[in-house]
Structures are given as structure tokens and as C-alpha cells.
């Protein structure tokens, strides 16, 4: 027997108990002190810790501390009350007030100090609500211990057990000779009290005032067994040499359930324990070491535990229904490992499979090793290929294959079944081969660093390349026939219609380096990766890929769930197993991970387990009721999202956003579960919080109103008022501007009207001037015509005359006339600009000289007509009237007189009246008609009208009339006696321009 035990000890290298992970909180990482008195979980899912002077609330991520209560004695002890009724009190017998925990917060209320029926008031009573390994029951200062149940109370006093019925108050003595030291074996299930009796190996049962003895498993009466019982939680634990069991009472029998082995519990002097079935965690509170949380794992990690050997695992084969075997000869079970055959530590762990005979085929030192099963795997053969490197070994669809490198060229060798020395076919490939999968009898998929090459046996060639540039790691077919493949750092892909479709990754992109996929009976895909093991329902994933709406959610398992390392391995063949007993096995960097997929739980909060009740504003914590109100001027605020959740909080995808527009983005909430509001504009908003509450991928939403108070200048009324004032000012400005523009416009209109009139006048003047200029030119032509015509006639006469004296006479007349004509032409420039010249000049000149100038011009012409021109003007009469105007006037009148007078006289005289200077030109010629004299005289009577209408009576005299009007003078036309015409020019007398004596 001893030999058998020794052999078993050699073969079983390691034996693992229930797997769990540990979290430890003390004063160094979150607790205000290390002493924990009691632990309880309320109906809302929060866990409460009782400590000295304070209580703590724990939600799985953070501790919320409550202290500064108005109590004299803050030495809090055990919890009691009723969880279902939301009434948890902290036991403190010396106070008249009690700390009540209700609706997720504590408050001080008056204590209910009921007298104990059937007991004397002078006795000292102590209620038993919890039993643990630290309690000591003594009778030195306590007269009676009691346990209160719904049906009645049990008193342990004077070495007796007395029952007092709750309704009838009847006292019943149940047993005598019962020392209080035996109470450390007491525990309660419902209305049943159990007291262990190790000395007699029996269990006492008290129920409704009746005593009985029942049979129980020996563990209950083992002297080494310690009992923990807490009345408010109803939980009973048995601890025996570090192994922890839970006690249950069902159908009249006590039963035990093994939880885990935690050898340190005996050393930590546990004062409080709580097992949370919802999260599968055991909470242990110590009076000196703080809080330890043991998370029971649904996963088991199996290791070999050999000295100087690592625990890195890669390829293995299923060996039996519940274990796997590696090429090192180590057989791994879920909780232990054993050596099957002796082999050195392998440094080439990536490829292994079994042939049809059960022999192990693996790669070692660039050779194929065949280890024979019929020798107990103790003998093996090696097969090598000269100057070629064996890169990988594969078995798929009945084919035995190896990827081989020769220089830069890759080949796939297909062997003749399990005869590895016989190469049946060689398939060249452009890129290195990392995965081989036989799709059907004809097609072979070769996963490479450049996608998947599809080889056809019937066509004996590569017929297709799928997923070009994708470095393929593994190719997997699920139960529905879908083909998936994983890549190196490029994620997971699904083959659909002979093309690669990207599978959506997780939010942290850990699945970019996914390894392998196994599908369980419930269509869940289990995906190993470099950072955790992921789970997702295949149908939900495919539906999302077909209609990508909402968010795809993966559930991630990590070291918190019992792994020793988050990094799994996948660049091997095979790198995952589904065993016959239903277990899945994945290799990791620290052993093989075993688990039953149907038994692995997912943890989600309940749909209503989100509370928005706390906020920190300006560094001060405030309690919220129905909304968050932020006063004006706040800089930042922190809103606490309280969700009691005790697993990896990233799996619930807790997010929040402030609805302030259509572009509001979801913000991931960190482990502190705080939503921060910074510089939010005044107004009313809605905070929307969501989290995942089940495996189906549906989110639970909760809204919470948020209001940011505005300064008076930020309010709507102020903005309306300011807007109104601005509009009013703008209206005033616009109105003022309008009035200004209206006035200016009116001025401009008047100016335009005035300018228009001026322009019309100017236009009329310009027109008149144009007419005048035209007529002036004609007049000049007319005035020149007479002298020129005279010269022409004399010249003709000169050519016809032979008399020298007559010729001399003609020459003299031509000379004189020409000279005067020349002088006249010299003044033509001033003559053409008469209308623009000023009426007067600074220079003073004689009237006589002006008349004499014109007399000389026409004298010879008049002489030819036997007419004499006499200048009887005053030799001293001077004037400043424009000289050129007067010359034109005199020229035209004298010219007309010369033309119309023959054998007569033209007499020119001057005179001064009281108001005018009078120039009279009288001729004895043909004379003007009465109508003409009346017409020209009437022109001066009509000079005040805008427009003068001239008749066609002669251009020259019309111009004279206009020039005389220009110098503000008049003309009079009279009949001369006996014949002829007298024209008088009345130049208005002005001391500035006329010198009359």
C-alpha cells in the first residue's frame, strides 16, 4: 500500500483544488483601516462592511465611506435586521440610537429597546446574531445569551436552555447542564437551531421549543471544525484545515457543499464571512488584515510543476475523454497532471498529432519524430529531409502533411498516409505555409502570410487566392459549415462567397491577434487571444455582420476569472481541444486552461441596478434625488454612477452621454464609474446611461435630468431682453439713419431739381449758344462777304480799266479795304467768343475810336455807292463795356446801312442821357419796313421771357440784338425822314463802365 502511494506520488506531478483568484484590500489600497467587524449584502446588491467608527459600501470597484454620525459610541459591531425588508442595522447595545442602513445609505434612528420576556431586569443579556471563530462565550459578566427567531426566543442561562414562545410568551425549559462554552458550535437555518456536540458525536436540533438529536455528516462534529454563522444573511460555513464548506438544511437534513481550500484562513482570524452566489465570490473580513475577496473560478489551470521547466504550453492531443497529452509525455487533467513517458523538455512544442495507430507524430530538431504507442511511447524514429527545413506538421481530412522550406521556396509535402518516408505529392507555394485545412475531397486550403491559397487536386494547381495580404494563423470550420480564419494582428475573418469578410473586433481590439475558435453546444464561440478568452454567440455575431446595427459585445475572461496568465497561444497545431467529456482546453503561457463551456457563467447587473444618487460639486459630496442641479459658475462636477457589479466591469460596456444635440457621443465609463461634466453650457439636459445586462447584447438605458443654472445674463429672458434692446437700438439707429437719409435725400432731390433746372438752363443756354455760334459763323461770313465782294468787284474793274489814274484809285481802295479786312480778321478769335466774354473790362476806351475803326472798314465800299459815312461821336466819350461786343454791334449796323444806302449819307452820333449812353446810326437808304422795326423793338420788350422766338428777318441783326441784351442794353428802331432808318443803341449808364459828360 505504501509502495502504491509512492508510485502515485511520482506519477501525479500536481494536484489542484478549486481554482480561485484573490483580491486583497487593506489600508494600503482603499480601506481606511484593517479591522472589519461584519459583512452583509443588501437587497440592492451593495456589500456593506462594519468597521470602527464607520461603515463602508462596496460596489465591486469602489468603496464609499460613511462616518461622522451623531453617536456617542462609534464602536460598530455586527449587522442584524432583515435584508428583504431593506432594514439592516449595526449592532450597538450601549446606544439609545442605532445606525440603520436602508435605501442604500445609513442614517441614525432611535433604538427599539424591548425588554426580554420572562427575564429579570437586573440580568445582563447579550443577543447572539453571529457565531465565528473569534467569539468567546463567558458567564462572568453576561447572565444570559439569547437567539431571537420569528417563532420565539431561546435563552442560554444558568447552564440551561429556555424557550419563550413569541405569541403565548410561554416559557419551556428544554435542557439542563448546558454550559455556555458550547455555544461556539451553534448555528441557525431558518427556525432551526443546531448545536454541535463533538464529544458525543451528535447534533442537537431546537425547533419551536422542541429538542431533538439528528444524524449529520461527520464534518459537523469534527473537533477541528470551526463554524461561522450570520443570522442576517442566513449563511453557515464550516472550516476544517483550510477547507471551506457551506452548510444547507433541506428536507430535514444537513448537507455540505465544498467551496474551496484556502489554507490561510486559519491564520487570518476571520471575523466575518459572506458568500455571494450571484458573483461566485467569498468575502473574508479579518480583524487585522482587512478584506480578502476569493473569486471562485469556473476555469481550471493545469500545470506540470517540474523544476527548472517553464509552463508555456502549445500543441497537445486529446488523450482519453478528459485529458490531453503533450510530446513531453505530460498528461494534463483539469486539476492535475502526470507523466506518461519520460522525455526531455521540448523546445519545439508547436506541432503534434496521432496517426491511425495512435502513434505520436511531432517535430523535434528539424525532424519528424514518430513515438510508438505499442512501446508505451518509449521508442521513436526520426525522419529528416536533406537540406530542407521542416516548418510545420498537419493532419486534416485524412491527409498527413508537412510544410517544408528549401531556400526561399515553400512546399507542402503530402505523405502516403502514415508512411512519412513516402512523399505522395509536393505542392509548391509562393509564401510560407502556416495553416493547412482540407475543405473537401478536391480542395485544400493553404493558409500563408499572403492569404489563403486554394489548391485543386483534380486540376493539380492553385485555382484561387483568398484574403490577399492577410497573414493567416488558423483556419476553422464551425458546425454550420462556415469557414473562419484568424490572422497575425489583423483580426478574424469569415469566408463568404469565396471572399474574406472582416469580423468586428472587441472594443479594446484584443481580438486583432486572435488564435483559435471553438463552438459549444449553445452556439457560443470561444476565442483565445493574446489578451484573454472571449465568448460570443455565433448567431448574434452573424446577424450583426449581416445587419450592423447597434454595438457588438464580446464577453472577456481574464486572470480575474482564474487564469494564471491572460496570454493564450495559437501559432501551433492543434491549439485548442474539445474533449469527449465536454471540456474545452486552450494552451496558455502558464499551463492549459480547462473548463466546461456550459458551466462557465457570465455576470451582468440586473436591469434596475444603476443608481444616480451622488455627485461631487466644488469638491463637496452631495446627495441627489431626482436630478442634478449645477449652480451658475460651476467649473466641473462629477456624477457617480453606482452599479453593484463584481466581475470585470468592461464586460458590461458601461457608457454615458449628455444629450445636447444629435452628435452626442457615448463615453466609456472607467472603473471609478464617474461621469464628469466640464464647462457645460447653461440649460436643461438629459444624461443617458446604458450598460449590458444579458448575453443577448441588448442594453439597458436609464436617463437622468441635468440642469445647469445660468447667470442672469445667460437666461432666456435676459437674452430676449438684450435682443429686444439691441433690436430697439437698431430700429432707432435705422430710423435715425432713415430720417437722416430721408432729409439728405430730400436735399439731394431738391439739389437734383435745382441742378436739373440749372442743367436745363445750361442746356438751353448751350443750345442757344450753339445756335448763336452757328449764326455767329454765318454772321462772320456775312460780315466778311461785303468787304471781300467789294475787293472782288474792284479787282474786276481794275482788270477792265486801262486808265492809270483809275487803276491807282482802284488799287488804293483795294488796299484800304484789305487793310481794314485784315484788322477785322485779327479780332475774329475774340469775335467767336463774344458770348463767353465778360460784359465789361478793366481797360477804358473811346467810343469814337470804335466807330472810326468800322468807318474805315466800310468807307471805301460806301464811297463806291456814292455814300458818305460821318462819325460825329464825342471824342472824349469813354466806356468799359466789352470792346469786341460793341465792335460786332457797330460792324453789323454800319454794314447793313452801307448795303442799303446809295447816293446818301450815314451819320453816327453819340449822346449821354441821365441813364444811358446813346449811340445813333442814321442812314438815308432803303430803310426797314414798319413790321421789321416793330419786330426788333419788341424783342427787347420780351427779354424777360425764357425763350425768344426769332423770325427769319436776317441773321446779323438777330445776333446784334442778343449781344446788346448781353450787355444789359437796348436798341430802338425808327424811320428816318425822308427815307432810311435810325437805329439807336442805349448802353446802360454805369459809372464803372461809362464816362459821360
Automatic annotation (TrEMBL):
The answer to whether keyword Signal applies is yes
Report the domain of life of the source organism.
Bacteria
What region holds the Histidine kinase domain?
A: 779-991
Classification via Gene3D superfamilies: 1.10.287.130, Histidine kinase-like ATPase, C-terminal domain (3.30.565.10), Immunoglobulins (2.60.40.10), YVTN repeat-like/Quinoprotein amine dehydrogenase (2.130.10.10)
Q: Which PROSITE patterns match?
A: HIS_KIN (PS50109)
Which residues are the signal sequence here?
1-19
Q: Which InterPro entries does UniProt cross-reference here?
A: HATPase_C_sf (IPR036890), HATPase_dom (IPR003594), His_kinase_dom (IPR005467), HisK_dim/P_sf (IPR036097), Ig-like_fold (IPR013783), Quinoprotein_ADH-like_sf (IPR011047), WD40/YVTN_repeat-like_dom_sf (IPR015943)
Its keywords, alphabetically, are:
Membrane, Phosphoprotein, Signal, Transmembrane, Transmembrane helix
Which Pfam families has this protein been placed in?
HATPase_c
Keyword Phosphoprotein included in the entry's annotation? yes
SMART domains linked to this entry? HATPase_c
Q: Where are the transmembrane segments?
A: 711-734
Q: Know the name of this protein?
A: Histidine kinase domain-containing protein
Amino acid at each position: 500500500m505504501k509502495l502504491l502511494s509512492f508510485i502515485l506520488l511520482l506519477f501525479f506531478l500536481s494536484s489542484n483544488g478549486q481554482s480561485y483568484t484573490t483580491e486583497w484590500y487593506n489600508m494600503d489600497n482603499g480601506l481606511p483601516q484593517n479591522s472589519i467587524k461584519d459583512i452583509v449584502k443588501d437587497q440592492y446588491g451593495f456589500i456593506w462592511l462594519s468597521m470602527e467608527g464607520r461603515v463602508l459600501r462596496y460596489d465591486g470597484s469602489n468603496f464609499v465611506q460613511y462616518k461622522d454620525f451623531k453617536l456617542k459610541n462609534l464602536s460598530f459591531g455586527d449587522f442584524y435586521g432583515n435584508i428583504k425588508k431593506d432594514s439592516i442595522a449595526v449592532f450597538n447595545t450601549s446606544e439609545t440610537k442605532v445606525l440603520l442602513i436602508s435605501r442604500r445609505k445609513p442614517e441614525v434612528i432611535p433604538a427599539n429597546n424591548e425588554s426580554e420576556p420572562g427575564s429579570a431586569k437586573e440580568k445582563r443579556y447579550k443577543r447572539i446574531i453571529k457565531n465565528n471563530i473569534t467569539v468567546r462565550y463567558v458567564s462572568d459578566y453576561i447572565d444570559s445569551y439569547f437567539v431571537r427567531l420569528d417563532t420565539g426566543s431561546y435563552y442560554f442561562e444558568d447552564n440551561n436552555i429556555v424557550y419563550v414562545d413569541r405569541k403565548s410568551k410561554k416559557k419551556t425549559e428544554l435542557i439542563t447542564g448546558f454550559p455556555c462554552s458550547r455555544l461556539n458550535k451553534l448555528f441557525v437555518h431558518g427556525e432551526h437551531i443546531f448545536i454541535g456536540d463533538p464529544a458525543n458525536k451528535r447534533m442537537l436540533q431546537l425547533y419551536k421549543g422542541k429538542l431533538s438529536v439528528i444524524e449529520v455528516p461527520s464534518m459537523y462534529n469534527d473537533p477541528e471544525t470551526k463554524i461561522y454563522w450570520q443570522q442576517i444573511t442566513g449563511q453557515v460555513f464550516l472550516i476544517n484545515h483550510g477547507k471551506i464548506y457551506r452548510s444547507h438544511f433541506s428536507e430535514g437534513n444537513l448537507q455540505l457543499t465544498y467551496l474551496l481550500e484556502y489554507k490561510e484562513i486559519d491564520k487570518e482570524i476571520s471575523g466575518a464571512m459572506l458568500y455571494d452566489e450571484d458573483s461566485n465570490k467569498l468575502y473574508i473580513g479579518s480583524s487585522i488584515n482587512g478584506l480578502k475577496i476569493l473569486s471562485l473560478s469556473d476555469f481550471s489551470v493545469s500545470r506540470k510543476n517540474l523544476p527548472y521547466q517553464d509552463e508555456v504550453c502549445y500543441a497537445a492531443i486529446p488523450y482519453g475523454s478528459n485529458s490531453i497529452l503533450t510530446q513531453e509525455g505530460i498528461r494534463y487533467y483539469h486539476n492535475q497532471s502526470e507523466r506518461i513517458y519520460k522525455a526531455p523538455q521540448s523546445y519545439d512544442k508547436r506541432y503534434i498529432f496521432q496517426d491511425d495507430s495512435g502513434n505520436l507524430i511531432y517535430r523535434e530538431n528539424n525532424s519528424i519524430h514518430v513515438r510508438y504507442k505499442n512501446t508505451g511511447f518509449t521508442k521513436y524514429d526520426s525522419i529528416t529531409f536533406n537540406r530542407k527545413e521542416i516548418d510545420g506538421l498537419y493532419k486534416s481530412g485524412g491527409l498527413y502533411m508537412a510544410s517544408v522550406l528549401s531556400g526561399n521556396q515553400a512546399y507542402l509535402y503530402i505523405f502516403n498516409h502514415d508512411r512519412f518516408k513516402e512523399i505522395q505529392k509536393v505542392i509548391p507555394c509562393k509564401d510560407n505555409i502556416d495553416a493547412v485545412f482540407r475543405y473537401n475531397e478536391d480542395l485544400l486550403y493553404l493558409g500563408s502570410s499572403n492569404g489563403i491559397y486554394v489548391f485543386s487536386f483534380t486540376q493539380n494547381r492553385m485555382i484561387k487566392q483568398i484574403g490577399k495580404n492577410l497573414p493567416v494563423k488558423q483556419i476553422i470550420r464551425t458546425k454550420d459549415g462556415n469557414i473562419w480564419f484568424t490572422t497575425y494582428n489583423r483580426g478574424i475573418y469569415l469566408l463568404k462567397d469565396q471572399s474574406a469578410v472582416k469580423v468586428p473586433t472587441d472594443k479594446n481590439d484584443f481580438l486583432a491577434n486572435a488564435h483559435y475558435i471553438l463552438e459549444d453546444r449553445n452556439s457560443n464561440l470561444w476565442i483565445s487571444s493574446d489578451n484573454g478568452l472571449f465568448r460570443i454567440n455565433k448567431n448574434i455575431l452573424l446577424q450583426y455582420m449581416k445587419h450592423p446595427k447597434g454595438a457588438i459585445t464580446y464577453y472577456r475572461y481574464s486572470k480575474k476569472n482564474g487564469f494564471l496568465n491572460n496570454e493564450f497561444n495559437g501559432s501551433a497545431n492543434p491549439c485548442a481541444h474539445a474533449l469527449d467529456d465536454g471540456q474545452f482546453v486552450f494552451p496558455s503561457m502558464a499551463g492549459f486552461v480547462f473548463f466546461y463551456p456550459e458551466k462557465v457563467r457570465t455576470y451582468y447587473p440586473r436591469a434596475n441596478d444603476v443608481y444616480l444618487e451622488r455627485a461631487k460639486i466644488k469638491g463637496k459630496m452631495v446627495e441627489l434625488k431626482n436630478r442634478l442641479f449645477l449652480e451658475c459658475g460651476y467649473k466641473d462636477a462629477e456624477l457617480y454612477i453606482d452599479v453593484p457589479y463584481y466581475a470585470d466591469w468592461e464586460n458590461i460596456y458601461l457608457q454615458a452621454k449628455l444629450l445636447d444635440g444629435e452628435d452626442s457621443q457615448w463615453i466609456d465609463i472607467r472603473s471609478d464609474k464617474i461621469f464628469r461634466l466640464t464647462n457645460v453650457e447653461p440649460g436643461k439636459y438629459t444624461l443617458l446611461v446604458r450598460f449590458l445586462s444579458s448575453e443577448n447584447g441588448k442594453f439597458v438605458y436609464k436617463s437622468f435630468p441635468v440642469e445647469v443654472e445660468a447667470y442672469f445674463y445667460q437666461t432666456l429672458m435676459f437674452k430676449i431682453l438684450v435682443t429686444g434692446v439691441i433690436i430697439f437700438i437698431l430700429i432707432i439707429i435705422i430710423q435715425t439713419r432713415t430720417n437722416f437719409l430721408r432729409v439728405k435725400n430730400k436735399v439731394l432731390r431738391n439739389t437734383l431739381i435745382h441742378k436739373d433746372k440749372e442743367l436745363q438752363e445750361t442746356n438751353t443756354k448751350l443750345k442757344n449758344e450753339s445756335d448763336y455760334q452757328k449764326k455767329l459763323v454765318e454772321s462772320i461770313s456775312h460780315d466778311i462777304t461785303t468787304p471781300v465782294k467789294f475787293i472782288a468787284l474792284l479787282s474786276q474793274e481794275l482788270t477792265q480799266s486801262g486808265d492809270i489814274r483809275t487803276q491807282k484809285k482802284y488799287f488804293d481802295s483795294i488796299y484800304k479795304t484789305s487793310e481794314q479786312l485784315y484788322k477785322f480778321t485779327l479780332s475774329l478769335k475774340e469775335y467767336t467768343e463774344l458770348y463767353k466774354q465778360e460784359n465789361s473790362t478793366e481797360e477804358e476806351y473811346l467810343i469814337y475810336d470804335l466807330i472810326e475803326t468800322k468807318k474805315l472798314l466800310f468807307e471805301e465800299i460806301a464811297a463806291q455807292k456814292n455814300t458818305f459815312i460821318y462819325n460825329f461821336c464825342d471824342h472824349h466819350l469813354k466806356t468799359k463795356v466789352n470792346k469786341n461786343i460793341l465792335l460786332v454791334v457797330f460792324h453789323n449796323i454800319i454794314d447793313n446801312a452801307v448795303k442799303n444806302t446809295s447816293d446818301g449819307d450815314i451819320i453816327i452820333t453819340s449822346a449821354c442821357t441821365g441813364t444811358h449812353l446813346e449811340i445813333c446810326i442814321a442812314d438815308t437808304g432803303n430803310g426797314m419796313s414798319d413790321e421789321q422795326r416793330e419786330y426788333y423793338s419788341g424783342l427787347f420788350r420780351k427779354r424777360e421771357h425764357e425763350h425768344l422766338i426769332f423770325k427769319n428777318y436776317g441773321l446779323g441783326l438777330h445776333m446784334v440784338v442778343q449781344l446788346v441784351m448781353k450787355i444789359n442794353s437796348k436798341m430802338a428802331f425808327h424811320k428816318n425822314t425822308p427815307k432810311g432808318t435810325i437805329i439807336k443803341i442805349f448802353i446802360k449808364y454805369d459809372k464803372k463802365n461809362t464816362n459821360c459828360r
